[in-house]
Fold this sequence. Notes:
This protein is an alpha/beta fold. 36% of the residues lie in helices and 15% in strands. The strands form 2 sheets. The protein has an 8-stranded mixed β-sheet, sandwiched between helices. Strands 2-3-1-4 form a 4-stranded antiparallel β-sheet, covered by helices on one side.
Amino acid sequence: MKMRCVSLILLLPLFSVVATETRNSDRNGFAGYKVYAVRAISKVHNDILTLLYNTYLDSEEVQFWGEPGEEGFWLRSAPLLLMVSPAQDQHIRNLFTNAEIPFEVTIQDVAEAMRMELPVLAESVSRDDSFKQTSMTWTAYHPYATIERFAQEIARLYPNFAQISTIGRSYEGRTMYLLKVGKPRADGKVKPVIWIDSQIHAREWVTSAVLTYFVNFLVSEYDTNSMARRMMEEIDWYFVPVVNPDGFDFTHTSANNRMWRRTRRVNPFSQCLGADPNRNMDQYWMVAGATQNPCQDTYAGAFPYSEVENLHVTEAILEHRQKVKAFIGVHSFSQVWLVPWGHNNSYPKDIADMRRMGEQAIASLKKRYNTQYTFGNPQATLGSPGAGGTMDWTYAKAGIKYSQSLELRDKGQFGFILPANQIIPTALETIDSINEVAKIVYDEYPPTTATS
Length: 452
Ligand SMILES: *[C@@H]1O[C@H](CO)[C@@H](O)[C@H](O)[C@H]1NC(C)=O
Ligand SMILES: [Zn+2]
């Protein structure tokens, strides 16, 4: 206790420096910014990081790529990442050193790391010829307009396999799509549905890249790849590739916006925009790991479903709930296979089945490139809970037993700005894991004649 007070008092002079923060409007975006990975190994460290987090809230000088978390955060194994401007670098480094918080610099220059998100041309990863049919590529990250066009092209190029529909409009008026993919059965039986969405968090670019790659894999390799064929014949796949199009587009408009996470709704009585759509669902809303401070990354919104994007997704899932047998929400990063509960450190009653699925999927994912995932709820794996998330809602309210969220690559080396040359490997290993989900779902919920 004594040590804790001393630490905080010592730090105060450092915090006051921040008041004169200058907005970074340099065209180079995050030139010279570093990313620090820190480990809180005591409660004192946790308190210091929480204070730091609150001090730099909504600042561009120090941006956290996660939250210090609450109880038990300091016990977690994964580091917390934060991005620091050149102007604040010495202060932050001194702070960590003085407080004996273990740290390492994982990215020396964020602007340089962002250049690796750009297209790799000549030496590009070999592309399958079948990819030529759409204007999409997976050697670069693309904005919403390209993903929108891709979804429409898929429906047009593969009318027997794919249908596109609109589920609503985002706050800023962008169209949100549901893309259904599958080979209809000759006997007309209803196949089990696996629902996958991505890009609910704006800055997690690899998620929609992987999801679109998967869509393309299913339809374009149906004839040649036995896994694609089986997945197409046994399952109907429902995709919402971009749940948060406004936030996603915002991350593409300027390098300075690249780290935006939330929606873009105007909040009354606050200058801070948007809410965390993965804290906005009407299931244990605001119970833990969420805040009512509109400037914080995990702002849950003023009330459940304050974000219209959440409403659209909710209604679309409910419309098909009888058929939907698994839900996968795709996030990055940390390499974790997450299951409920998000709001506390317990597991729901179906945990044995969920664990069997998760562990089988993780084992399959690992085979290709030895990428290692961990299984568990958010508290146990990431060190902090998150209430009001989609997977808790799909499990408890939509009755989907196999509800899970994936945190894709990596474990913090590049974090959200995963180089573009990792998109295809990430997609391939993720497809391997989803294949296990498909097998279990098909065995457990074979096609039925019921007209639900
Ligand atoms: C976590 O929440 C679930 C569902 O509300 C509840 O059944 C369980 O007891 C809770 N666990 C703890 C440790 O509070
Ligand atoms: Zn996320």
